[in-house]
Amino acid sequence: MHPLAGSIAELVWLLPILPLIGFVINGAISLFTSFHAGPADPSAAHGEHDVAHAGHEAPDTHDEHAAPKRAPLHAIVTIVGPLVLLLAFGLGVAIFVAMPSHMATPFVKTFFAWMPVGTDLPIHWAFQVDQLSVMMVLFVTGVSALIHIFSVGYMGDDPGYARYFAFLNLFVAFMLVLVLGASYPVMFVGWEGVGLVSYLLIGFWFNDKANADAGTKAFIVNRIGDFGFLIAMFLIWSNVGTLDFSGVAAGVGSLPAGGPLLTTICLFMLLACTGKSAQIPLYVWLPDAMAGPTPVSALIHAATMVTAGVYLVARSSFLFSLSPVACLTVAVIGAVTALFAATIGLKQWDIKKLLAYSTVSKIGYMFIGVGVGAYVAGLFHVITHSFFKALLFLGAGSVIFGMHAAYHHTHSTEDAQDMRNMGGLRAYMPLTFVMMWIATLAISGIPIFAGFFSKDEILGSVIARAADSTLADVHWLGIPGSAVLYAVYVLALAGAFLTALYMTRMMLYTFHGPNRTGVEEQAHLHEAPPLLTFPVVVLGVLSVLGGIINLPAFLHLPAGWTGALDQWLAPVVGDATLHVTHGVAAETPHEVALVGLAIVVAIAGIVTAFVKLKPAALVPKRDAQPATGFERVLENKYYVDELYDRTVVTPVVAVSRSFLWKGIDAGLIDGVLVNGSAWFMRGLARSGSWLQTGQVGAYAWAIVIGVLAVLGAFTLR
Amino acid sequence: MVPEALFFSAILFVIGVVGVLTRRNAIIIFMCVELMLNAVNLSFIGFSRLYGASGQVFVIFVMSVAAAEAAVGLAIIIAIFRHHETVDLKNINLLKGWCSNCPWPNRVECIRLPAPSPSWCGCCRYCR
Amino acid sequence: MPNGFVYEFLFYLFGLTAIVSAAIFVTRRNAVAAALWLVNTMFCLAALYIMMDAQFVGAIQVLVYAGAIMVVFLFVVMLLNLGLPPSVADIKSKGARIIALVAGLAMLAELLVLARQKLPAELPWLPRETSVTTPITEPLFRTYLLPFEITSVLLLVAIVGAVVLAKRRS
To answer: Among A169, A682, B107, C106, whose CB has the most other CB atoms within 10 angstroms?
Structure first.
């Protein structure tokens, strides 16, 4: 009898159902009211994208400044949207409270046989309640609830208000399926579902083709990753014979540890993770995903969905820990991505694009963590990152909200998201300013703040694994594992320096120095309304205190204060971690010195930014000179999009157009098979109708010939 | 005498077949068919000498069916003659879907013409 | 008597007469003449039936075929006034006739080849004192009772059909 049987955990099915109910209600409202009173270009209502301002060229001052007419049933959407999330969060907390402090086995609740394939593959619709999934449920529903509240203020005047909340609810429903699923197929439903909703929300303002294209790009790039997920599932099933997490964990021991099969499975799974979590080589969709509304970027493309890859690796820790080569690959990809994205972030002017590259970089850190077998550290960073990155995005949303309002008043067509048009906002948005600095210090890794603890745990784990672990014993592409791990550490440290640098740069250009918005507009700049600042403040508090859930041991705090998350997650990932570390609890050598080095690097980044960058010298976007040299390469993101376009997209499109479309589809299928068979049958029918003369004599002849043939056959028999 | 009877039967049947193939008069062709039936009857009678009286029973069935056929077939011939003023099968090809003097050949649906028109053919539901 | 010379002579005589009459029948242009030659063939066939111990069928042959069916044919021929030779370009061209003849000969050859099998011995002749209908009535009203009844329905349908078809439309 499982300790959770009969407890409130039996209601786990309600967790995804609650947001799904919200989706149905809001979706029905959206469908049946079909409110289109807004401007023809829906993004003009908020000006998320610079293109959106084109509609303002000919100012129609009729009722510009009057509050826009709100969508019908606005109040119902406002209540239902966040309420279902709060209820789900409450249920999650109740399940968390009901869980015993140490629960050795997960509580698996099977609801029905979903896809019973013979007797070999009985796939059940089952949810798994264990320490990992409950942790994910808590932070997914918690952060989602805050962002829903933010959205009420941010999207209130949008014509697609109900549609927006329907999608947002649907996203949370799928995300909960993803984290609760007790087997790979159930998880895959959530995996695909969040991808779908991500597509829908990136292209939320689909009247603008650039937004719709960004959604399509995200969807297609994610498909590549999903292919990896499917192949990994097929391989697991054909070799282990089950797809349940517990069954695979029990059966995987029969496979040769470190063998090519396990490595192949893990690498295909890694492909899925790089797609969903925006790592090299499939990261390109995430910066474009900023075309969606800012709260969406905060929720899906920073806090929750993009961490699904980290979750998948942690969930499959029993697989990854058996394949050191795959683990090293994960860590290397994470480290390279962390540094690569950080360098691009250095020269971004769009505040949301900058945060997007920052997200890619930070998920790289999480990959380093789960890659070196420090699953707790990786998941710890997932949580703290969700706090401060959601805070950064919501703060940026407040800034954009204020900027746009100002530009809206003066009918300006300037870009409300470009940092060159900001500056000196400290005076106008003091609360946002303070909160953004908290998030910046947290992401840079300044002590006390949440990001410091999680980032240093990852970096310390890298050094610990380099000193002694199964990873250090193997060779990765001919390089000794320990050398690879030291290189990963250096890359990560360089990334930390750049993180501090570009985040401080963002703060300097946005909030410090003189204001570059425009003389007229300054009168209209003001702090965001309380509905927007409330979630920001809550996240700010969490960004400060978030580290408390897993304080490091070297602080010598009283028992119970340190390593809470370590102990909490030990039943899920503890075995895998021990397997990587040769069965002993890892001791990081020179831990205090390493932490000191990381702090120095972070502070150095901040100081460098203050010394080198001159906000006062910056000119607004319209007066800016084009960048030159390496700066230009960075501004253009290393031309990776162009590279992919040349090497992948163009050939694929060309082959599709000339061969698959014109040749196979139009030529073979339409021409030969479809029309050809019709022509053939018509010809056959014509020759048949020629036989059908209506002359009885001809029919008589046909009969006689037939009789002759039959009798002849009998004769010759 | 049975082999001789079968021999006569085969010859009579072939004569009937050749008649069907060479004549165009519907009534003559009909009579040729009757001749073929009679040839078969002769075979039946011959076989009844070998296998018992069932063959004679079959002859009686064939005769009654032939009588029915003659009644209906001749009625059809009369109907055709009333319509076409001929029993020459060359001119009768309604089985094709439209009659030979239809003004709209090669069409499944011919176009309705005024009823007293000389080209009125009555070959399909539109013309009727 | 059945195996005597006279019997065989008469058998061949009627058989050959039937064939010759049939051959003349298919070559007559005049429909009335053709019908009368066909009647001759049927009379000969009736004689053959009687000579093969099927006296009842022979009588029926005369009554039904020669007497009823052929009379209907003649009646129709005369009703439609088709008796005059030139009224219908009846017989097909020479080429068609030759091809038809070749086909007929081919069929005949095939039939003869197929008929060249060993036949079982003939059954004994019926005793003189037996009624000629007895051997037929036994299977007709026992084994083939259902087909017999269906035939009666068929005849009824044919009567109705003939009436409907031949009735002049108002």
So the answer is: A169
